[in-house]
Amino acid sequence: MRVKDLMDTKFLKIYPDYTAKKTIELMYKKKRYSTAVLDEEDKLVGWVMSIDLALIDDKSKKIKEIMHPLNEIIILHENDPARDAVIKIVEHKVTSIPVLNNEGKVVGMVRNCDITKTLAKLYDIPVYNLFKIFERELKGITWDELMEAAAVVTKHTTGEDISAKEYEKRIENTTFGQALWACGGLEKFFAGLIKIGEIAIARRVAKVR
């Protein structure tokens, strides 16, 4: 996943000659607390926050007199890994970061709420779908063999005696997020998935012999 998959492309555009009053009105209307300042080619030239504007007595002041300069702005590029957006937002304690393309133009904004929404969508992925992808990647292992291996791993790890059919029914109604909680985290979930694949392959090899 790349930054461009997270960013908001319908971002607020503010220009240096806008007054503080006009900018306040636009930020209030769009419910934005910080925003990029662009030149006529949509290239980044500054950054302004609602707190900066709140401290200005003369609301007729131009944004170019108020904005933070380019060298103080945290930026991302659209093809950066999505994890860079998470790291920068946490590390610099900002609520949004402008995203640039290869020409230096602002093409979007990544907000902390965009990241939260994306993670929420990932957590809602059905585990059944993940197993279907896993089945395709294993190449040669059937769905029934995969479910049988999953039942074996479940018994080894939890002591629960469950059939392949029961396991299949269970994952039909389980999301990725629920599975993570049940397994005790991301590492344990994927370690279990790998173990299922190993057992499915070992059982297939044993049958061939």
Task: Explain what you see.
- The chain has 209 residues and is an alpha+beta fold.
- It folds into 2 domains: 119 residues, CBS-domain (Roll), CATH 3.10.580.10; 85 residues, no CATH class.
- It is 51% helix and 12% strand.
- The chain has 9 helices and 6 strands; from the N terminus they run αββαββαββαααααα.
- A 3-stranded antiparallel beta sheet has the order 1-2-3.
- Helix 3 links the parallel strand 4 and strand 5.
- Pfam families: CBS.
- Keywords: CBS domain, Repeat.
- This is CBS domain containing protein.
CATH architecture of the largest domain: Roll
Summing up helix and strand content along with how strands pair, one would put the structural category as alpha+beta
How many helix segments?
9
Return Rg in Å.
25 Å
Uncertain ranges: none
User: Which sequence of strands runs across the widest sheet?
Assistant: 1-2-3
The helix/strand series, from N terminus to C terminus, equals HEEHEEHEEHHHHHH
What can be said about the biggest beta sheet? 3 strands, antiparallel
Tell me the span between the first and last alpha carbons: 42 Å
Number of strands: 6
Using the alpha-carbon principal axes, give the shape.
elongated
Q: Briefly note the CATH topology name of the largest domain.
A: CBS-domain
Per CATH, the class of the largest domain reads Alpha Beta
User: By CATH's scheme, which homologous superfamily of the largest domain applies?
Assistant: CBS-domain
Q: In percent, how much strand structure appears in the residues?
A: 5-15%
Average pLDDT score: 89
Instruction: Domain count, please report it.
Output: 2
